[in-house]
Amino acid sequence: MQNNHHKEHLYKILVIGDLGVGKTSIIKRYVHHNFSPNYRATIGVDFALKVLNWDQETVRLQLWDIAGQERFGNMTRVYYREAMGAFIVFDVTRPASLEAVAKWKEDLDSKLTLANGKNVATVLLANKCDQGRDVLTNNGIKMEQFCQENGFVGWYETSAKENINIDEAANCLVKHIIASEKDLLQSEVPDTITPQLENDKGGTCSSCFRSQ
Amino acid sequence: MGPELEYETKSGRAGPGNPTSPRRSVRKNLDFEPLSTTALILEDRPANLPAKPAEETQKHRQQYEEMVAQAKKRELKEAQKRKKQLEDRCKLEESIGTASQVWNQEILPNWSTTCTSRRVRDLWWQGIPPSVRGKVWSLAVGNDLNITHELYNICLSRAREKWRATPASSAETEINDAGSSDRESSLELIKLDISRTFPQLCIFQQGGPYHDVLHSILGAYTCYRPDVGYVQGMSFIAAVLILNLDTADAFIAFANLLNKPCQMAFFRVDHSLMLTYFSAFEVFFEENLPKLFAHFKKNNLTPDIYLIDWIFTLYSKSLPLDLACRVWDVFCRDSEEFLFRTALGLLRLYQDVLTCMDFIHMAQFLTRLPDFLPADQLFQQIAAVHMTSRNRKWPQVLQALQKDPERGSPVLKR
């Protein structure tokens, strides 16, 4: 803000996945640097804001922590709008939550695309890796393959409890978001500003374009 | 205690780096423990130092006396404050006592005639005493569904059969029916959610005294209404009822409460009907708080973002529990309209702070309200909300919107 060249980016990021996989815990760890085994269930959507310094620029991440019950899908999919990236979380101790990952990804891609038609950057988080039941993910090659098949830009074994890989995963996502944003800007006529998505009026998330 | 002795200890504590500042160390000391400043200033200097000049001694005495006077004043003030708090608490306890007597002896025995009287409605607004709260809620919610204790037991034993049929280890269960249809298995979700219901109370968690009761009521409900099943938010509602009613009565109230039109709309996730409720809310929002309404609009903050949590849990997750119970009291009296009126009361209470916030901060604020929320102020704000819009009351506004859904909030439509 002190100099005019200082850029500010605002990115909306979704955190989705089955109920009870630890979405809220991951966000609390990432933003507030703490963990409690006693988070209340999220009903609807919760919010958090994380500010990062990124190559002398400021990156603001607006994190949308979306309730995991499938039943709420109709209601919460409006929250996908204008997101620039997503985490899809599953619980390594609950195989069904991994089964659900592909569905969450499919759902996301069908409801949200960037202006150039590409999907938003999405990172897969295998959470609760501290619980030692990571039979699901100990086959790295298989996980890599899974990510490629389903269009994830990367995956991390995370633990909100032990603070494992949360920052790394977030940095990976931000890196890909910035790349896809550059990609977007290049594919556009330089001085028209068109926010992503079918929504025709600029929303909160396109302020990162405005500041440039 | 002799002054010399006191000085010895004092100077010892002050350390060698600070030899000339007994005053400063006294002052410092005063900040923390005003009552222990016994005569420190009145003491003479040690024999190996030149004696204090008379005027300095005089000055120190004066300063010391001022300090003592101030400390006494403060002490007196605090004593008065404590006395006032005690009096207030006694008064409150007494009024609760009197109120429970009135409810028990006068109102409840003649419920059908008294419940609509002006006096009872006024008492009701002030909050139902905890000892009769469950009874009043039961009576006010009613039992249109005619659920008996036997029916509850039947539903419960069915739920138990199902639990027995699924292996205890959740992981194995899920491997077995890794297929997708059972992903939403209500019983599985209940297990996951129970431990996340009022975790700070430590009574619904595994091993806690009400864990099994909560499990039973939610399980029985999924057998009673398999078409609705378990939906997040239910665990909070059942928990609040359990805190105020016996198990079977809590179940009866739970099932009847969820059967109310607004709750059915939300728990069946009837999206278009939910949007109608949000639109009706917006009509009264604009009417009551036009400036804040415009601010929300400008920031694209739609009511679903905060109302979903408030309505699904009937405020039991977002408000302190005692305050939530007071909201439930009047909700039982005034039905769904009061849920939206409470929302407007909250927005009214915080409109000044909200007006200065951007989208994300408002969203964060409303989905996580301050821990210390003044009950009386909130109820004053709720009382100040007008639930009429162009001569129409809540039911008429809702009905009109239901007939003409196109007038619903365009933002949320897709």
From TrEMBL, chain A:
Localization annotation: Endomembrane system; Membrane
Function (record text): The small GTPases Rab are key regulators in vesicle trafficking.
Highest taxon listed in the record's lineage: Eukaryota
Residues in coiled coil: none
The protein, known as: Ras-related protein Rab
UniProt source species: Pleuronectes platessa (European plaice)
InterPro entries cross-referenced by the UniProt entry: P-loop_NTPase, Rab29/Rab38/Rab32, Small_GTP-bd, Small_GTPase
MF terms (GO), sorted A to Z: GTP binding; GTPase activity
PANTHER family named in the record: RAB FAMILY (PTHR47981), RAS-RELATED PROTEIN RAB (PTHR47981:SF43)
Pfam families assigned to the protein according to its UniProt record, in alphabetical order: Ras
Membrane topology annotation: Lipid-anchor
Gene Ontology biological process terms from the UniProt entry: endosome to lysosome transport; phagosome-lysosome fusion
Cellular component GO terms, alphabetical: late endosome; lysosome; membrane; phagocytic vesicle; trans-Golgi network
UniProtKB keywords: GTP-binding, Lipoprotein, Membrane, Nucleotide-binding, Prenylation
From TrEMBL, chain B:
Stretches of the chain forming a coiled coil according to its record: 54-96
Keyword entries, A-Z: Coiled coil
Entry-linked PROSITE patterns: TBC_RABGAP
SMART domains membership: TBC
GO biological process entries: vesicle-mediated transport
SUPFAM superfamilies on file: Ypt/Rab-GAP domain of gyp1p
An example molecular function term from Gene Ontology annotations: GTPase activator activity
Pfam families linked to this entry: RabGAP-TBC (PF00566)
Annotated region (Disordered), positions in chain: 1-30
PANTHER family in UniProt: RAB GTPASE-ACTIVATING PROTEIN 1-LIKE, TBC1 DOMAIN FAMILY MEMBER 12 ISOFORM X1
Identification of the protein by name: Rab-GAP TBC domain-containing protein
Organism of origin: Pleuronectes platessa (European plaice)
